[in-house]
Design brief:
Elements: E1 2-6, H1 13-22, E2 27-30, H2 45-58, E3 63-66, H3 78-98, E4 102-105, H4 115-132, E5 138-142, H5 155-165, E6 170-175, H6 176-181, H7 189-202, E7 208-212, H8 236-244, E8 253-256, H9 262-276
Helix pairs in contact: 1-2, 4-5, 7-8, 8-9
């Protein structure tokens, strides 16, 4: 198990690595462009190659690219879905060329359309994306907080997506705050056992590659996406300890997406390691 945070690249990729090292990370998550815009940044080979070299030197792996927040792969709006697919394809291309292991995406909302039609539309789009992508990175589908008609709010639906797409290039990222907001009580050992039993049955642990480790102050089943510091919300130390010490999750990359300052990033990474009973991993 490896631990890290989301780091910004606005100051350059070298600075992003420095930020990660200062926070005590041995894995990281980044955006490859503006997370709230449609424009893509042209690929700068020298910058991304230096980023790969610096990550290797500092023992930081894996790296996750998080796609834009605007993406909606389940939408019935053809323009929105087309733009969304292009952004995901762009990030998969950057990842393949930059030696980055994962691209993580939200799935979006069905809106007012029939859920079955939206589900099939999302599956078809993701299947095409992985078929057209260069080999290397895995596309991870993230669970949603379940509000409204969001896609992927349950383990059942995520598992159905994986089964329908049927591609080895697809995995899953589980966000703990989203799982809680969707009604999964992971605040104690019994709840974690039940959650992991269903996760293993619906998805399979080999498909789970990243854990977004976020606490929350939203009530259980509140269907709202609000992140808080590890162990300081309603999931709490007991829930995270049970989750992080589960042997089924020993292989995952743990990324904190908690409110940020350099000091808070360090504190959240330390809390995650403490609750996992882990020490700093050695570079490989």
């Amino acid at each position: 198990m490896r631990f890290g945070v989301h780091v910004g690249i606005g100051g350059g990729l070298r600075k992003a690595v420095d930020e990660a090292v200062a926070a005590g990370c041995d894995c990281i998550q980044i955006f490859a462009g503006n997370p709230r815009g449609w424009r893509t940044t042209p690929y700068d080979a020298s910058s991304w190659q230096e980023f790969a070299r610096l990550r290797a030197e500092r023992g930081i792996w894996p790296t996750v690219i998080h796609t834009s927040y605007l993406i909606n792969l389940a939408s019935s709006n053809r323009s929105l879905q087309s733009k969304s697919a292009k952004l995901v394809a762009h990030d998969l291309d950057v990842a393949a060329r930059g030696g980055i292991e994962y691209v993580n995406t939200h799935l979006g909302s069905y809106g007012a359309q029939d859920r079955h039609k939206g589900f099939e539309r999302a599956c078809d789009t993701i299947r095409r994306l992985t078929a057209d992508a260069a080999p290397g990175p895995m596309l991870l589908l993230e669970n949603s907080a379940g509000a409204g008609n969001l896609c992927g709010g349950t383990l059942e639906e995520l598992g159905a997506l994986l089964d329908r797409i049927d591609s080895p290039g697809i995995g899953v990222c589980i966000d703990t705050a989203h799982a809680w907001a969707s009604g999964y009580d992971i605040s104690d050992a019994a709840g974690v056992r039940a959650f992991l039993k269903e996760l293993g049955r619906r998805i399979g642990f080999k498909r789970l590659r990243v854990l977004h480790l976020n606490d929350t102050e939203i009530a259980l089943g509140g269907k709202r996406d609000r992140h808080w510091h590890v162990g300081r919300g309603l999931i709490g130390d007991a829930g995270f300890r049970a989750l992080l010490r589960s042997p089924q999750l020993a292989h995952v990359a743990v990324i904190c997406e908690t409110p940020k300052t350099p000091e808070l990033d360090r504190a959240n990474v330390r809390a995650a390691r403490r609750l996992a009973g882990a020490s700093r991993a050695k570079a490989k």
